[in-house]
């Protein structure tokens, strides 16, 4: 039986890429019966007499999957945050980083609209960019006017499935249009009343960009840590995970425990205080989470 990858899901149809062909398929009834939903990014076995009348027979095991947006087998996530309109938020960025790291997806940080910054704010954004680079993240700075910085981003797409995510209104669709002008993805201006953009992307679709497949998505509509336990949170902060090996007590949560290497690193400035503060904030949120039955 032939195999392929779902690159688009729309109105009950699944569009399967097999080599140079795209086959329109429906899911078999047993998927519904077993409460299995095919996702964009799935590797599937299908059968088809022609390119318009195929059926999905089997979904291969997934490396990972996201609920919102519904996509699987993601290699990396470009986290798009604007320097201005809306203002850059390390707290929101760290929240996205935790969710991405927890799903074993490689993050790339992209800060847009750098040309809108006043001179004194440029240094602040540059410092944030340097902080995240020291942790080990790739950070791209992109100007709206001349789209400088795109050449730093595009090579990362090659042979990968990439998802775009970030705060609404930061320019995810605009960024993809700049990279691949033929996409002509719909964009909206920022709502001055709400201070954020309207969602303009209605379905998930993988599109060829930079020798790879890229999904322009509505972003994470849920930023809760529902699948992350308190003991696992530190692993999603790379610099905390690295230092925790030196803590006296195994299972140290880096709050009140004695001889904590993480807290010592914060005091020495080796771990930024705002990253540690976000860790404590997220840990409290997880501990206060109501159990689901």
From TrEMBL:
GTP binds at residues 112-115, 166-174. Monomer. Associates with 30S ribosomal subunit, binds 16S rRNA. Pfam families: RsgA_GTPase (PF03193), RsgA_N (PF16745). Gene3D superfamilies: Nucleic acid-binding proteins (2.40.50.140), P-loop containing nucleotide triphosphate hydrolases (3.40.50.300), Probable gtpase engc, domain 3 (1.10.40.50). This is Small ribosomal subunit biogenesis GTPase RsgA. Belongs to the TRAFAC class YlqF/YawG GTPase family. RsgA subfamily. Residues 72-221 form the EngC GTPase domain. HAMAP family: GTPase_RsgA. Coiled coil: none annotated. Keywords: Cytoplasm, GTP-binding, Hydrolase, Metal-binding, Nucleotide-binding, Ribosome biogenesis, RNA-binding, rRNA-binding, Zinc. Its cofactor is Zn(2+). It is an enzyme of class 3 (hydrolase). Its EC number is 3.6.1.-. Residues 63-223 form the CP-type G domain. One of several proteins that assist in the late maturation steps of the functional core of the 30S ribosomal subunit. Helps release RbfA from mature subunits. May play a role in the assembly of ribosomal proteins into the subunit. Circularly permuted GTPase that catalyzes slow GTP hydrolysis, GTPase activity is stimulated by the 30S ribosomal subunit. It comes from Bacillus changyiensis. Zn(2+) binds at residues 247, 252, 254, 260. PROSITE patterns: ENGC_GTPASE, G_CP. Its main location: cytoplasm. Binds 1 zinc ion per subunit. It is found in: Cytoplasm. The keyword Zinc applies. InterPro entries: G_CP_dom, NA-bd_OB-fold, P-loop_NTPase, Ribosome_biogen_GTPase_RsgA, RsgA_GTPase_dom, RsgA_N.
């Amino acid at each position: 039986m032939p195999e392929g990858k779902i690159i688009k899901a729309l109105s009950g149809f699944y569009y399967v890429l097999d080599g140079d062909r795209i086959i329109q398929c429906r899911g078999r009834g047993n998927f519904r019966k077993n409460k299995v939903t095919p996702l964009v990014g799935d590797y599937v076995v299908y059968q088809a007499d022609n390119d318009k009348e195929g059926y999905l027979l089997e979904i291969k095991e997934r490396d990972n999957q996201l609920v919102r947006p519904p996509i699987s087998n993601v290699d990396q996530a470009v986290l798009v945050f604007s320097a201005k309109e809306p203002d850059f938020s390390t707290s929101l960025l760290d929240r996205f980083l935790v969710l991405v790291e927890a799903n074993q997806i490689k993050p790339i940080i992209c800060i847009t609209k750098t040309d809108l910054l006043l001179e004194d704010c440029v240094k602040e954004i540059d410092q944030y960019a340097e902080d995240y680079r020291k942790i080990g993240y790739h950070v791209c700075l992109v100007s709206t006017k001349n789209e400088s910085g795109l050449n730093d981003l595009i090579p990362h797409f090659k042979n990968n499935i990439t998802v775009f995510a970030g705060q609404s209104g930061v320019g995810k669709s605009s960024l993809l249009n700049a990279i691949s002008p033929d996409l002509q993805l719909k964009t909206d201006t920022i709502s001055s009343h709400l201070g954020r953009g309207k969602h303009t992307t209605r379905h998930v679709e993988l599109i060829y960009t930079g020798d790879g497949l890229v999904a322009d998505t509505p972003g994470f509509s849920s930023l809760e840590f529902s699948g992350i336990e308190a003991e696992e949170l530190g692993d999603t902060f790379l610099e905390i995970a690295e230092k925790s090996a030196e803590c006296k007590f195994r299972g140290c949560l880096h709050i009140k425990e004695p001889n904590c290497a993480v807290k010592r690193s914060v005091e020495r400035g080796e771990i930024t205080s705002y990253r540690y503060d976000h860790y404590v904030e997220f840990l409290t949120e997880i501990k206060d989470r109501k159990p689901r039955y």
